[in-house]
Amino acid sequence: MPRRPLLILIACVAIVRPVAAQRTEPLPAIDSAAMWGAFTALAADSMEGRRTGARGGTAARALLIRRLEQAGLRPLGASFEHRFPVAGRDSSVREGINVLAYLPGADTSRVLVVSAHYDHVGVRSGAIYNGADDNASGTAALLAIAASFVAHPPRHSIVFAFFDGEEMGLLGARAFVGAPSVPLERIAANVNLDMIARLDKNELYAAGAAPWPFFRPLLEATAMQAPVTLRLGHDTDEKGPGENWTRQSDQGAFHAQGIPWVYFGVEDHPDYHRATDDADKVNPGRYIGAVRTIADFVRRLDASLDAVVPPRTR
Ligand SMILES: [Zn+2]
User: Fold this and answer.
1) What is the pTM of this model?
2) Cα 163 to middle of ligand 1, angstroms
3) CA of 43 to the centre of ligand 1 (A)
4) How far apart are the C-alpha atoms of 282 and 39, rounded to whole Å?
5) 281 lies in a domain?
6) CATH code, domain carrying 237
7) From ligand 1's centre to the CA of 16, what distance in Å?
């Protein structure tokens, strides 16, 4: 029996070590050069502001599909393109087209939907609204995060959703949850990226922990290792309705269906929804820091999903 305490000690060390190693694990690798290339291409004048139904929107979609294929991602369904009808005041726009990629995990029972809208408002009075922050930034980040998951496969299946028609009222996201390719009860959570590049104060916000408190510990752990300041908020009406971003981007469509979500973005800046929202206003290092932070959160969420997000009961 004298050796027993020693064995217990060894056992403890063996158990403790992997946990300690997890805490100091490097942030997920992101191909920042490829991401910056996609970001500047999406925010270029040649994309004509990526308006839904317009030539620029088609060009942006072609870039997305090319990059997804290069990264080895498969479409969700028969094609990357998921069309949905648009009915509104502007009769020149009849349909929008989401781009949906799917990466199966080891466990396919529940799915994460990581999303960013690729559309913007197009050309107004002769000025091209490049929408660099809104939302070439989230779109290019989503491509980079998708590619990083191909290299290091997820535990749970992930849909990478590039939504169209967000600027017309979250139309692509609403179409997705309205006629889902994945049954809604299998969607464990939505992580939405919209305006993540303009970290003028090196601050990124994560909203969603107020309505979905089980995300808070994961977000706090992410913040501890983040290369940017990650703040939680903008998800209650406490400071007035303008402060609550719940319905201000595509996560609103998931919220309406009772699907938990986390939204990442920055506070409004002077170039928000102006023709001056250009790529040259973005600090590349801070933008890349924001993307690594978000990628780290998605990794943590995937790894601990079953412990964190309760199954849906319908
Ligand atoms: Zn946006």
Assistant:
1) 0.91
2) 10
3) 13
4) 10
5) yes
6) 3.40.630.10
7) 43
pLDDT tens for residues 51-61?
A: 999 999 999 99
For residues 221-231, one letter each, b for 16 or more C-beta atoms within 10 angstroms of the residue's C-beta and e for the rest, the string is ebbebbbbebe
Ligand 1 centroid, distance to 203 Cα (angstroms): 17
> Position 272: which residue type?
Y
C-alpha 268 – ligand 1 centre gap (Å): 11
Which residues neighbour 300 within 8 Å (Cβ) at sequence distance 6 or greater? 218, 221, 222
Domain carrying residue 273: 33-308
Q: How far is CA 41 from CA 53, 61, 199, in A?
A: 19, 12, 20
Measure 135 CA to ligand 1 centroid, in angstroms.
5
Query: What is the CA(314)–ligand 1 centre distance, in A?
Result: 31
Q: Specify burial of residue 122 (Cβ count, 10 A radius: 0-12, 13-18, 19+).
A: buried
* Token couple for 22: 């997890």
Ligand 1 centroid to 275 CA: how many Å?
Answer: 14
Kindly state the greatest CA–CA separation across the chain.
Answer: 86
pLDDT, one tens digit per residue, over 62-111 is 999 999 999 999 999 999 999 999 987 777 889 999 999 999 999 999 99
Is 296 a member of any domain? yes
Query: What tens digit of pLDDT does each residue of 156-184 get?
Result: 999 999 999 999 999 999 999 998 889 99
When pLDDT is cut at 50, 70 and 90, the band that residue 8 belongs to is very low
Q: Is the dihedral of CA 149, 151, 152, 156 positive or negative?
A: positive
Confidence class for position 25, pLDDT limits 50, 70, 90: low
Q: Provide the number of structural domains found in the chain.
A: 1
